[in-house]
């Protein structure tokens, strides 16, 4: 095991605090607005048809621009990009909190997505270049992974508290102190290693194709949710996404300084990690949504009680990430943490398919949440670290952006895909159980149909997580204890990068 590099930044652990705080702000913003949305809709008179755009505007801008943000951080400097992203995110949050009409709120959400796309890859790539010794890297990514995994649930709790006791506008204003503290701290303690920037020119065709392709893909799933899978617009967006992303790959293989160097994703380990994380996000994001609706609508929980119900999951997620994942990462091959971790989470979901109208939280829901938290925490930890392991310093930002892209695009797809499955199952159940006896108590049948829809979607989510585990076990073939990333060398060439991650898909 190599010792800490002599040039390691002595302030790197302080820097981790501010980087993690920024990551928490970005991740919780993906869910904090969900619980506040009904109040904002009433206050601003947002139509039912437009309300999804409060969520989708953020996901589209964030998911579509992440690769661009990652490359900007490599070229312009990670610290500068990180601080700019924080300041912009705070400004966009202030606009959202002060919104007086629908366009102002949606514009603020899109702006949050734009600055989040600068901030998120810069945060992860700063960790990748600052923590290069294996054990330290494991600990740093354990903390970061726990925050990335648990932030969504923290968002649900804060969203509930603000909506119930204050005002929906505070779900935006809360970002401002987060951003000020993180930006001030970053300016004071974050230092980038010398020689880790990429001086190449920006690949403009790549930026346009990747952004339009990812936006078309996410928007296609959003349209499927509202218009159906066979609608002309839905199919049109999926075809456009396929053509644009295929053109993007063709361009990237030919240009001198690509936006996404194909060596970053054709590496067998990283490719497996991105695919596994994307699928896991599809399963987990959908679950948050269904469980929130089940607890609030079916069981009548308040927004705060709903948010607090997720706390045990956050606790086991942090335990899995910092105690299991981080401690075993330098001793056990990552696939033996990722595969079993995703399988444990899938098993927790299978248990959750037994819910009915009167399921006890303690015996019917809590065991599932504990298993899912522990499984996801254990799997996220090595995945986050391996996604940037062995990457040349000049590619750290774009490799980090791919982690966020797979999670954001996966989350947006998961919400739309599982919502569509749940809605279809609910309608089918309603039709097949509409007997004269059921018609006498239509509200009961509606609740039963909704719960059937949730459980059907949760079965799908469990299957998707199982597939995620199989991908991790099949493709991720990295061995622990072979030192830090190639980033440690402060400018390793292609051969050194290949030595750092021994199994490559050429």
Automatic annotation (TrEMBL):
SUPFAM superfamilies: MFS general substrate transporter. The keyword Transcription regulation does not apply. It is a multi-pass membrane protein. It holds the Pfam family MFS_1. The chain crosses the membrane at residues 15-37, 52-70, 82-104, 110-129, 141-162, 168-190, 202-222, 228-251, 272-295, 307-324, 336-355, 361-384, 457-476. InterPro entries: EmrB-like, MFS, MFS_dom, MFS_trans_sf, Sugar_transporter_CS. Keywords: Antibiotic resistance, Cell membrane, Membrane, Transmembrane, Transmembrane helix, Transport. One of its GO terms (cellular component) is plasma membrane. Residues 15-480 form the Major facilitator superfamily (MFS) profile domain. GO terms for molecular function: transmembrane transporter activity. One of its GO terms (biological process) is response to antibiotic. This is MFS transporter. It is found in: Cell membrane.
